[in-house]
Write a structure and sequence with these properties.
It is a single chain. The protein is built from eleven helices and ten strands. It has helices at residues 3-10, 20-26, 68-83, 130-146, 164-167, 172-186, 227-234, 250-261, 268-272, 274-293, 302-329, and strands at residues 37-41, 45-51, 54-62, 91-92, 100-105, 108-115, 195-198, 207-210, 213-216, 223-226. It folds into two domains: 3-115, Phosphorylase Kinase, domain 1; 125-329, Aminoglycoside phosphotransferase (APH), C-terminal lobe (Aminoglycoside 3'-phosphotransferase, Chain: A, domain 2, Alpha-Beta Complex). It is globular, with a radius of gyration of 20 Å.
Length: 331
Amino acid sequence: MPLTEIDRLKQTVSEAWESPIADQVAARWGYAAGRAKWWRSSASHVFVLPEDGRRRYLRFVPDSYRGPKSLAVVAELMARLSDGGSAVVRPVAAESGALTTTVATGLGAVHAMVVEPAPGADVDVSELTAAQARQWGQALARLHRDAAGLDTGLPEAFGELPSVGTLFADDDELVEATARLADVMSELPRRQDRWGVVHGDFELDNMAWEEGGPVAYDFDEAALSWYAADIAYAVRDLTDHTGRPASVHRARFDAFVDGYRGVRPFDDEDVGRLPLFAGLHAAASLVRITRALGEPARRQPQWLGELRDDLTGMARAHRQLVIDIGRTVGG
């Protein structure tokens, strides 16, 4: 989401983490003013909703950033997966009975949904055991298996790639590396065993762990793509600058792959394509970050300046990853 949109919403948040904008949206689910508490804003604005000693999460995006259909498709996917027994959080219907709703607010129209909490605890990559890494791989494989055929309305991944040449017209090295990666991608088969519905961001930050394994949430990036691409993005914290397993995380990476293979196919050819997809993801992320940054305001709060600096650093790292992998994959 553009930093300007994050700042517009943040300006409405009080010291008690309340916002009249969130109140207007939460009312569609029957929540009184002041119940929603701001948690974070990134791909969407997220507020916590207390519910009988538990938490629900209100998520909404401005219409200028994302249309109503994309949110509705994601909510329907999550509901169908949950109803089918998949370990994903379920959307909560609004008082109207709809899973998503559009609300006219003081900042313009927004599209919203509420999701149940994911039970369990967070797990950091440094704390991840081999057994948990295996469960992680199993969970993603089950999601790929269970989501087969639930693709109505989802976009195809890597739609950002054509914008690289325009956004970075003066960066020949980046444009050429992206073109090489895209050329290789264009030749990949889209067979049913390799292509389908993907989560889009199945990293450790987007799941909570119970004894039986992780429960997934945050389907903002759900799309149609290669399953190997979903794996490459999920395990990016386990890889190095070439998109290959980092030596310090090799055991975790191998356990993840073993877990995935225990549920559905993932052969050595798929593993060999992970660096390609790491480079493609880096190029797509670079486009998203650049669009989010926009032009800095003359005056901005300290937190926004710090966030802008962090994202600028991430953009530099993504650029270098595209170039590094482009040299090896496209050579």
